[in-house]
């Protein structure tokens, strides 16, 4: 018996473009013998299914169902492929929890907390062998003191929206006099901002997922870019960044990364596949946690498909195992 799956894509932020590409990869690799897939687009205007042979059909949000040619379609589960709001911040997860429909991502609480970079760092900072950059969190509706920030943190600074994704609104500040303009830029994206000390080192990202009941750490990717930092352009423009999967790491470093990444996954009570960004100092020294993405990109060039391939698992099998683990 095929499972009826809603593949939810789109969203209400600038990341909807990436979401649509992710959904295309997922749809292409979901086994048609095992799953009956309906791609559902979520936009500011509504939630709808758009079959190839007819006009768009609105989702009934009362029970997340569709009426197609007089037949009611309900879903065994939802594959959430929305980056940013409302897919990654816990809102959709809470909605599906109330309806009793399982989904492929972390639960509502973990999704909401991990969307906030400052709160996430507070939870993971006591994990053995994990370091976090010194930072200050400020809010648009509360006063903040630039002089205090400059006194507490060493240049250069990273200024980033606390709840955003894909590095939108982020700045690297080398001169203290540029701090205010960087804060203003970030406040255009979010009401909370994280200002942290810049950590100089090699940048990596690693996927972590529960497959066959076991937490599995995928081969890490090293990211090198000629740009100041790994921003939206570097992430989504071919050729701007060099990505090496699997990353060239010493065996003992690879084991340490796997232990720390697994500990983060468990400490944050993650489900499904997540991606952890981190920096290694010097000669594969201290592990600095940067952030976690609970709905990482699944486009053809995204890190997770690269890492799944390096792990030696066909993407088709990976998604089948992911759905089995999260939806049943």
Automatic annotation (TrEMBL):
Entry's Gene Ontology molecular function annotations: ATP binding; D-alanine-D-alanine ligase activity; metal ion binding
Coiled-coil region: none
EC number: 6.3.2.4
Residue ranges occupied by any ATP-grasp domain in the UniProt entry: 117-324
Manner of cofactor binding, per the entry note: Binds 2 magnesium or manganese ions per subunit.
Pfam families: Dala_Dala_lig_C, Dala_Dala_lig_N
Reactions that this protein is recorded to catalyse: 2 D-alanine + ATP = D-alanyl-D-alanine + ADP + phosphate + H(+)
UniProt name for this protein: D-alanine--D-alanine ligase
Organism: Pedobacter hartonius
Gene: ddl
């Amino acid at each position: 018996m095929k499972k009826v799956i809603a593949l939810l894509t789109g969203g209400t932020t600038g990341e909807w473009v990436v979401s649509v590409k992710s959904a295309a990869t997922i749809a292409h690799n979901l086994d048609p013998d095992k799953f009956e897939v309906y791609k559902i687009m979520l936009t500011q205007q509504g939630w709808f299914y758009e079959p190839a042979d007819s006009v768009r059909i609105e989702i009934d949000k009362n029970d997340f169902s569709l009426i197609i040619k007089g037949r009611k379609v309900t879903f065994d589960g939802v594959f959430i492929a929305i980056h940013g709001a409302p897919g990654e911040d816990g809102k959709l997860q809470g909605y599906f929890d109330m309806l009793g429909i399982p989904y492929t991502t972390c639960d509502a609480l973990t999704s909401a907390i991990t969307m906030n970079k400052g709160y996430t760092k507070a939870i993971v900072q006591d994990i053995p062998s994990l370091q976090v950059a010194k930072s200050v969190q400020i809010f648009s509706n509360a006063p903040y003191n630039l002089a205090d920030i400059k006194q507490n943190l060493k240049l250069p600074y990273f200024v980033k929206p606390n709840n955003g994704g894909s590095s939108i609104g982020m700045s690297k500040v080398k001169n203290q006099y540029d701090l205010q303009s960087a804060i203003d830029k970030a406040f255009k994206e979010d009401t909370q901002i994280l200002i942290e000390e810049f950590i100089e080192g090699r940048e990596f990202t690693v996927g972590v997922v529960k497959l066959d009941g076991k937490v599995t750490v995928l081969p890490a990717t090293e990211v090198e870019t000629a740009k100041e930092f790994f921003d939206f352009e570097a992430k989504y423009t071919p050729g701007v960044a060099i990505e090496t999967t699997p990353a060239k790491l010493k065996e003992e470093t690879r084991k340490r990364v796997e232990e720390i990444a697994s500990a983060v996954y468990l400490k944050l009570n993650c489900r499904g596949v997540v991606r952890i960004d981190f920096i290694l100092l010097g000669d594969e020294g201290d592990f600095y946690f940067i952030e976690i993405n609970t709905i990482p990109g699944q486009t053809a060039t995204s890190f997770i498909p690269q890492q799944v391939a390096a792990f030696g698992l066909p993407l088709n099998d990976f998604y089948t195992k992911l759905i089995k683990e999260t939806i049943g």
